[in-house]
Amino acid sequence: xxxxxxxATRHVPVRSAAPGERRGAPAHVEDLGALDEQxxxxxxxxxxxxxxxxxxxxxxxxxxxxxxxxxxRVLLQADRSVLQLAQVFTILGEKHARVAGVCRLVGPGAxxxxxxxxxxxxxxxxxxxxxxxxxxxHPALLAIVGAGALGPPAAQLVERLTVGDLETxxxxxxxxxxxxxxAELVGALVGFLSDAAAVxxxxxxxxxxxxxxxxSLSASSRPLTLPWPLAADPYRRSASGAAAWxxxxxxxxxxxxxxxxxPREVGLALRGGHPFAPGSYRRPVLDLAPLADxxxxxxxxxxxxxVTVVExxxxxxxxxxxxxxKSGGVGVREVRRLAADLEVPERxxxxxxxxxxxxxxxxxxxxxxxxxxxxxxDHWLELTSxxxxxxxxxxxxxxxxxxxxxxxxxxxxKVVPALAGxxxxxxxxxxxxxxxxxxxxxxxxxxxxxxxxxxVATWDAPLAWSEAVAPPSxxxxxTLSEMExxxxxxxxxxxxxxxxxxxxxxxxxxxxxASPEAEAWEMVLQADLTALATGRVPAPVRAELGLLADVESxxxxxxxxxxxxxxxxxxxxxxxxxxxxxxxxxxxxxxxxQALEYLVGDVDRRHGHIRLGAAGCYVRFDDAALATxxxxxxxxxxxxxxxxxxxxxxxxxxxxxxxSALRGLGYLPVAxxxxxxxxxxxxxxxxAAPAQRAPGPPVRAGDERARTEGGWDRAGPPGPAxxxxxxxxxAGAASRRELVARLLRSPRGAxxxxxxxxxxxxxxxxxxxxxxxxxxxxxDEPDGVPGQGPEALWDEVPGASLLASPGFxxxxxxxxxxxxxxxxxxxxxxxxxxxxxxxxxxxxGGGGEEEWHEGRHRPSEIVRAPDAVRELLVLxxxxxxxxxxxxxxxxxxxxxxxxxxxDVSGGVMVALAAPRWAEQKYVLARIGWVxxxxxxxxxxxQ
Amino acid sequence: xxxxxxxxxxxGGPLIVQSDQTLLLDLDHPGAxxxxxxxxxxxxxxxxxxxxxxxxxxxxGLWNARAAGLDAASVCSSLQRWSxxxxxxxxxxxxxxxxxxxxxxxxxxxxxxxxxxxxxDRPVLEEVARxxxxxxxxxxxxxxxxxxxxxxxxGRLKQALxxxxxxxxxxxxxxxxxxxxxxxxEDERFTLRDYQRQAAAAFVASGSGVVVLPCGAGKxxxxxxxxxxxxxRTLVLVTNTVAARQxxxxxxxxxxxxxxxxxxxxxxxxxxxxxxxxTYQIVITKRGRLTPHMDALSAEDWGLIVYDEVHLLPAPVxxxxxxxxxxxxxxxxxxxxxxxxxxxxxxxxIGPKRFDVPWRDVEAQGYIAPASCTEVRVTLTDEERMxxxxxxxxxxxxxxxxxxxxxxxxxxxxxxxRAAGEPTLVIGQFLDQLEVLGERLSAPVLxxxxxxxxxxxxxxxxxxxxxxxxxxxxxxxxSIDLPEASVAIQxxxxxxxxxEEAQRLGRLLRPKHDGRAAHFYSVVARDTNDxxxxxxxxxxxxxxxxxxxxxxxxxxxxxxxx
Lengths: 942, 562
Known about the structure:
The structure holds two protein chains of two kinds. By secondary structure, chain A is α+β, with helices and mostly antiparallel strands. Chain A has a five-stranded antiparallel β-sheet. In chain A, strands 12-13-15-14 form a four-stranded antiparallel β-sheet. A three-stranded antiparallel β-sheet of chain A has the order 1-3-2. In chain A, a hairpin with a 2-residue loop joins β10 and β11 (about 495). In chain A, α22 (about 425-440) packs across α23. Residues about 1-25, about 690-730, about 740-745 and about 745-855 of chain A have low confidence and may be disordered. The model of chain B is unreliable at about 1-10 (pLDDT under 50). Chain B is of the alpha/beta class. Chain B is globular. Chain B has four domains: about 10-100, no CATH class; about 105-170, Translation Initiation Factor Eif1 (2-Layer Sandwich), CATH 3.30.780; about 195-360, P-loop containing nucleotide triphosphate hydrolases (Rossmann fold); about 370-560, Rossmann fold (3-Layer(aba) Sandwich), CATH 3.40.50. Chain B has a seven-stranded parallel β-sheet, sandwiched between helices. Chain B has a seven-stranded parallel β-sheet with strand order 19-20-18-21-22-17-23, with helices on both faces. Chain B has a five-stranded mixed β-sheet with strand order 7-8-6-5-9. The interface of A and B includes residues 298 and 556 of A.
């Protein structure tokens, strides 16, 4: 009965089937120090976990080898005959068993299997043969495998009985003793129970119900549940029924209050003296004809297809990351979209995503809530095609979750999302290896043979399959599908890649994949402005081509189309016409068509003729001389004016700041409205605005951000507001400015304000703080030179409105402040603006500051009016107060939640919800009421 | 092939099969021509530029192949035989499954029940019988696999079934129509070419379908051969009156038909004779809710209906065609591509494609002069650019296309052509531009307003070489015959439609006596949307395999271009 396992371990230097002849085996299984070099090496090969990380000494190695997890790990690979043998040791209950006894117990004719299993265990140092016949068994082995679903030993159960109960039983089985000493009574009863013949005849004579119950108990590991009166008094004379009969005749014993177990000896006797079904220690034989080896090109094609499609995943999710479901993982909608992009079946798309993730090419970024490629993916893309395949296949083999679990339908009828994580198990790679080995052994791996293969696979590694998420036949089917996808099996027949992967032989895989034809490639350019790339196009060429042209169709070849837009993209990326044409001429096998050359030249001619940039405002002059004068004026230099045309200057400062600065220099500028007309500023007497808002800061950064989402600031707010009427107003402004300037010069650590928690956030994923000077510098200044510019400019405008001015410290380009809440540059900026306000408040200043300060007290009332709710949320967001809200979900479910607000905009609040601080979106209109938590409440929560 | 060791897969086949079911044929491969012969039967040629031709397998194309007797196994084995790389299993399965959908449903004439829809596969019959679009077209069920079809719904049923993806095989046959003897008169000046004979034979064998031949490849001859084989009263639907007159001339010249046998049914005359030439326009003309002419023509006992330029067939004619499914139908076209995407209607109502020759192949056989295409980019003057910039968007195209800077280029091109003795056509869309051109080139201008007689006179003069340059408007684009034009200059055109391009090139591609090359110039205003349309034109022409060059106007003005 050859076993795959036996083949695989043939190199173990244990040749003899007779354990007694073995040399170099230590007397104690734990004694690794007694092993010779060769055996120790073999041991470390068979149990690699012992050597990883390298143990400092042999003592450490021994400790590690004794540990239950290590033994568990090695037993994942043990076949059924080995596990049964281990169970026999447990049944025998001895650390030192005898080979003959073991063979007897396993069954007649089992010697070869027993010896083979012993050899397996011995090679892994789980059993050691002492002398001729005696075995020394690893203690952890006994602890792990159990006793083949047999109960505890009789002695253990009998000892708990009272003398009276013992006498009752002994009388019932017809063996009473004159002695009333408990020890003797126990001895007598155990003696009876160990007499298999006597037990059998007792059971045979039992009432039929009791007999049936006894037989069923002997076959399973489930204890007997006692009915209530029996549980209360198991040996009551008046009790009747099968359970009572078994109790009174000593065939079962109460173990817990309500359950009883059958002693091991009784169970063994009822099983006919052998703990396992006859022949179960033999490996099942399958009637599967070996299939012809797959043709090499088909294998290569399959492997190449895998690599290409995973590349596409990286490409797709690199340009448009996949959203993660709230419950975790990538949902079926994203995967379906990906499948359409990749032109693969949806089920395969799930598997491919899992493989890509296992290889570390894509990963969930918890901050973005997106799955996107890793830096490792870039490295992977640079490998040769064969190495890329190898990386994927290795990752697949080692993954601790079945790749096919994603996309499967669970018991609730829901599709399991990709990358959902779920329970990971070391048994899963072992399952894969088992199937891989089996398919290689049988040269057969067709899907329709999955059930048959599962039967052998579960015999080969019962423990590995015992914790499978799916029934073994389904799990085997999954594995076979995955192997087809990877090219390990092609058309049901194992490819050379399968053997290479199983043996970790990267060279063999490379050889199988790297035929000269497979590495060939070609690029053809045609007059209809298409390019055709076939074969293994090197990554740099592919990338460049992808920049220059758009992909039109994929498959064995990739068809690209050049267009004005695609060529422009290359120019945008910094290519020149000469470079592009040189690239094309170098790689195009059949020359560059004139039309394409012309296209490149034409784009070159037109590229960059229109230029644009961001500016805070423009300054227009009637004559160039005046413009030059202002531009060259030293005092105006602080405005950062740039000349973009003879009569036009631009500045990054907002219009009102420039306006006042120019006025300060003695010029007489006027503001211009959008339509070019002059803005007239009337000096109307001031009036109070209708009361809407609780005392608080007049204009907040958050509001401003909402108005100018996207970072484009039109040249200041339209109308008279553009020239800030409150410029220079505020008694404490000067001292505040001074303080800020001083603080900005002082080291960051010294200025941490008190009164508010500024320590580590209670939830993960919040961005680290950025030093104020870096953010609050003028955009045109080089990094790390905070300084004169801002100080001087603040002379013109009050701090608050300066803070509110968009474009300050931002990139100023649309899209630069994309969604992402506080995690993006904008969020950082806002936080630092908060810091900045803290500094302002910290000084105490004049009357204005008093009001300002009051605004920061936590409101205690419950707010319900929609406007007030929004206002309070905005305030709470800025102050980082936790709030309690009541909320009605879209499904109509009402609940309350404690949240930390990240952002309030466009009718939606994004917040982290306690206690997990998971990011949630709340529609403002559905918020019933809001209350700000007190500091004491906050402290409790945090 | 410049890579070291790059065999380019030449060791493999010439065909690369893509996952989107396009087939890329490498022309430089020695087996390319043989491969083309096999795949052309089931895939449609989409692009034929210089190195790699693209074919596409569509359900329609595969069903066309199935209708012509090709089965899934031979399609798959062709693919496998010629493919350079191993084929994905799924593709072969998909192809087989698509092909297997054709003919599971059959429309037959049952001796007892008349027209019936029969299915070998009952679930398919159940599926389609329950479909909302099909149910009203079906009559009572005779047995589990047979349903009566109302005769008048034969066409509509086929239309509906193809939309469901279950094209029916129409075996119900055709009525023969009133016989009328027609014979071809072949002599040294006119003989059927091989491919014309094959096309006619392929059509006659099946009874209905479309023959795809490039302009100038002699589609009329195919129709005449088909008419001769069928020998019955024939209705020919043509695009306009001029085309009708040309058909008449050809029929009189090359068949036994006499003047009295041929009738014209147009806006000007309403004659119904054994062979009647009717324009699309008159057929779809409505009087209130009625279409009297369509009804009058439909009532005749035709044995054959010929649709000239099937890709231009107006949608109402499909309706009429749906009602006369028992007549033999021959579609003629240079391209199956319809701008309105009604290729499926052509398939189901007129019939599957029966014959197709790639343009380049016809050209290589010497029947069509090779053409070279040159786009001349004219830089507008500052003034013209400003007027382009200021024009309202609807007028912008006109402003760019009619820029006066183009005139000098056209003059230079014409002068060069005249020097070389090449008859030249100048084609444009805008009448005022054409008038100006006519004056500057001292050439007659032919527009829609030109009376038919005058038009025919000018054409005749042009043909005779008396007029070296003819300026024509859009109307000249369709179904006219200008055999001697070997240079065409396009100064403006409608939005770069693909059909228009096919037509314009068609004008040039007529056979020449001496095998001279034809030249096609399009004069394009740089940096205007004229140029965008030119880009589409460029793509189409390059895809058709024509050498396409772009030159600057200075190049033309500086030296003789022809």
